[in-house]
Amino acid sequence: MHIRGDHAELVVGGRLDVRSAADARTVLHSAVDDGVGDLVLDLSELDSWDATGLGVIMGAHRRAGRCGRRLVLRDVPPQMQRLLVATRLHRILAIEGGIGVESLPRV
């Protein structure tokens, strides 16, 4: 997993899973705490995430809310969009451009 960017936009790549969760949490919390306005997470380079990785995203979302900020997901890969829809988190998280639920392939 790699995360690069600043306190306004981060690009998350690789795998966001149990092995990378602690490092990702540290980077995301620092970005939330040190910035202002929306924090955009560009997920275009993210290969996969598991429940732990999704928990890191949700934790950053809650922390951003407490800091008066908004966490915005950008370029969410289709397989991860399906997971957000299945868990109904697409109704809670801010997703740039939204998710076209009807356009997602059925599994």
TrEMBL record:
CDD domains in the cross-refs: STAS_anti-anti-sigma_factors (cd07043)
Domain STAS: 1-107
Protein known as: Anti-sigma factor antagonist
Domain of life (superkingdom): Bacteria
Family that this chain belongs to: Belongs to the anti-sigma-factor antagonist family.
Molecular-function GO terms, alphabetical: anti-sigma factor antagonist activity
Organism: Streptomyces zinciresistens K42
